[in-house]
Amino acid sequence: MAPDEAELHAFFHRLHAGLPRQAPGSPATTELLLRLAGPLPPRPVVVDIGSGPGASTIPLAQLTDGVVTAVDVHRPFLDEVRDRAESAGVADRVDVLEASMEDLPLPDGGVDLLWSEGAAYLMGFDRALDEWRRLLAPGGVLVVTEAEYTVAHPSAQVRAFWEPGYPAMRTTAGNVAACLEGGWDVAATYRLPESDWQEYYGPLAARVGEFSAEGIDAEMLAPARAELAVRRDHGDEYGYTAYVLRPR
What we know:
Strand order of the largest sheet: 3-2-1-4-5-7-6
Protein name: SAM-dependent methyltransferase
Domain Methyltransferase: 46-140
Oligomer: single chain
Largest sheet: 7 strands, mixed
Number of domains: 1
GO molecular function: methyltransferase activity
Number of strands: 7
Strand content: 15-25%
Pfam family, one: Methyltransf_25
Helix content: 40-55%
Distance between the termini: 53 Å
Low-confidence stretches: none
Shape: globular
CATH class: Alpha Beta
Radius of gyration: 18 Å
Mean pLDDT: 96
EC number: 2.1.1.-
Structural class: alpha/beta
């Protein structure tokens, strides 16, 4: 009998537990994007939406001297954030919030730097920009990475991978146009390098190999194997682009 959705969801978290990050990125890219975001207050209020285990949260705390709140719906990820913050010596400046990015229990106008790497697509780029805007303080900035097609006509294999979960996925040109139409100034864009994908997929591929060696049901591992295969064979057709945005 094929695993049902609940079983696959539970297995996804088991497969990903303890991995260093849950989306493409790297400490170098986080630092670069922070520079592109421009000057911040001496102790900025920072919110990392869809933080996962804190791959961006901890560098943001270290690099800004601000108070950073990691937001995620998965409590074990937030527990990892706390552990990482303690190890990095920034536990006094890292908070966690278990909440959905679609219903953030945060006050309006209080965030100097709103950050989200590899997560906005879960609710859709346009909706995320529209709903998160209220959180920014005057002079605040949003840094977000977004999944995008990098070619005008992606292959059937790539569309079959992305369209079921993200039918609204666009190119950089389409997203820049949407930002401008939505009342945002685009201060910078940056395409994440392939090395940032390896930061994510390298550990994931190793974990898939470990589970295979342990005799884990191949059907349970099939989605992860398919994800790794489409990146290996068609990675030039899609990627993540970072946007540094300021509301007009």
